Amino acid sequence: MIEIKQNNGETKGEFxxxxxxxxxxxxxxxxxxxxxxxxxxTEVEPEFNGxxxxxxxxxxxxxxxxxxxxxxxxxCPFAAATFKKNEEIRDVL
Length: 93
Description:
- This protein is an alpha+beta fold.
- It contains 2 helices and 5 strands; from the N terminus they run ββββαβα.
- The protein is 26% helix and 41% strand.
- Strands 1-2-3-4-5 form a 5-stranded mixed sheet.
- The protein has one domain: Aminopeptidase.
């Protein structure tokens, strides 16, 4: 089971994914003003490839954006591809 924790700082933040207690992935972001943030990097540990960890990280960021009326700029290639493939999350772009 994937568990995601968020660490939000004044200028940067991250979502960290854990799979059965082990760190499985990380997605970092930077604030671009008060109402939007830039997803700049997503990585998944090799042993967790193909388990949906990266997608879950992006979806957690989308949920955070929706709850706080924020917009996302996906500069990370993985995040950009996830938004391109999943129309239902594009409302936060």
